[in-house]
Write a structure and sequence with these properties.
Elements (H helix, E strand, L loop, with lengths): L1 H39 L7 H14 L6 H25 L14 E3 L2 E3 L5 E5 L6 H13 L4 E3 L17 H14 L2 E5 L6 H4 L5 E4 L7 H8 L5 E4 L6 H13 L5 E5 L17 H8 L4 E4 H5 L5 H11 L3 E5 L17 H13 L13
Parallel strand pairs: 3-4, 3-10, 4-5, 5-6, 6-7, 7-8, 8-9, 9-10
Antiparallel strand pairs: 1-2
The chain binds phosphoenolpyruvate (PEP) and manganese (II) ion.
The site of phosphoenolpyruvate (PEP) has 10 residues, from loops.
């Protein structure tokens, strides 16, 4: 007898559960619809005044046995889930997302097609110091079949008393040297107002880690069609990184490449912590090429080769590393730049590992 009654009650409970599922999903559909209407009107999805009204309605109509605070707590979870549902839709709609574009973005730079499956190197000094310094590095790059010459002309230094870079003069040096050796120039720009000037010299605008959320700079870089290499912020989540890239794309510039360069953690053995798993995550979630900067992530010369191998093995579209003819006298990052012999050795070992396919021209005998 008791068992039958239990069965009966359970059946009724199941019915109610099913109705709740149906009702909650009906509610979700309405909430999504409201989200769409709000977004069309440019309104914020989260509306605390409206939420307060709904919570008040619960308290006015609650006949128990649940306490009003309990019901309000449950509803708060439903509100939150509905908002997340709306945000998921938003995420799906991001221009950087694979959901928006299934095929990989290929960025054309000086006849090179970055993101086409061939993995590439970006190398060069931390800062442009002189024509001779850049020329020496560029010759080494050319010799190794590396096509992308980097060098900082505007340096975002932690201390205002440190070398700030040569500015436009540095960009001129990069351009002259790159033209001499047939290389492409990548250089960081820090001021949105400098973008129109910079595009006369660079093939790729770099936006540095410290400026990843400099939204005016992102918008300025998005307003030209020069390719952009966007570096991950020092403490940026992958989602924030993707949204920073979205700023550039949303302004019309589709030629965006991402660069994982290590993030701040409590670990002190390296300058930053290379978030290697960010690479496959970014490759899955976005259609943009992804680079790994092994110099600024590790801050250690002895880790450049193993981390570069890891980056190539995990599917990065390329690796960035700093090279200086005489790192001991470099005006910035002297501890981790490779000299030219070390760079040649680095390249040889990458090739030996089978992970890197050289772009060196084969000289036919
Ligand atoms: C750089 O690449 O020169 C640089 C300053 O790197 P980051 O912005 O990643 O620190
Ligand atoms: Mn540097």
């Amino acid at each position: 007898m008791g068992n039958e009654q239990l069965e009966e009650l359970r059946k009724e409970l199941d019915e109610v559960n099913l109705q709740l599922v149906k009702l909650i999903n009906e509610r979700a559909k309405l909430a999504k619809e409201i989200g769409r209407v709000k977004s069309a009107q440019g309104l914020n999805r989260f509306d605390p005044v409206r939420e307060r009204k709904m919570l008040d309605m619960i308290s006015e109509n609650n006949q128990g046995p649940f306490e009003t605070s309990t019901l309000q707590h449950i509803f708060k979870q439903i509100f939150k889930a509905s908002l997340e549902l709306q945000e998921d839709d938003h995420r799906k709609a991001l221009l950087v997302s694979r959901k928006k574009q299934a095929d990989d973005t290929v960025v054309e730079i000086n006849g090179e097609r970055v993101g086409d499956g061939q993995q590439r190197l970006i190398a060069g000094p931390c800062s442009v110091e002189s024509y001779e310094q850049v020329d020496a590095v560029a010759a080494a790059l050319k010799n190794q079949g590396v096509k992308f010459l980097r060098g900082g002309a505007f340096k975002p230094r932690t201390s205002p008393y440190d070398f700030q870079g040569l500015g436009e003069e540095g960009l001129k040096i990069l351009r002259d040297v790159a033209d001499k050796h047939g290389l492409a120039v990548i250089s960081e720009i820090v001021n949105p107002g400098d973008i129109p000037m910079a595009v006369n010299y660079v093939d790729v605008i770099q936006i540095g880690a410290r400026n990843m959320q400099n939204f005016e700079l992102l918008k300025a870089a998005g307003s030209v069609d020069t390719p952009v290499l966007l570096k991950r912020g020092l403490s940026a989540t992958i989602e924030e990184f993707m949204n920073a890239a979205e700023y550039i794309l949303s302004k019309g510039n589709k030629n965006v490449m991402l660069c994982e360069r290590g993030i701040r953690t409590y670990e002190k053995a390296t300058r930053n912590t290379l978030d290697i798993s960010a690479v496959p995550i970014l490759k899955q979630e976005t259609h943009l090429p992804v680079f790994v900067d092994v110099t600024h992530s590790t801050g250690r010369r002895d880790l450049l080769l193993p981390t570069a191998k890891a980056a190539l093995a995990i599917g990065a579209d390329g690796v960035m590393a700093e090279v200086h003819p005489d790192p001991a006298v470099a005006l910035s990052d002297s501890a981790q730049q490779m000299d030219i012999d070390e760079f040649n050795d680095f390249m040889a070992k990458l090739e030996e590992s089978g992970l890197y396919k050289s772009q060196k021209k084969v000289v036919k005998g």
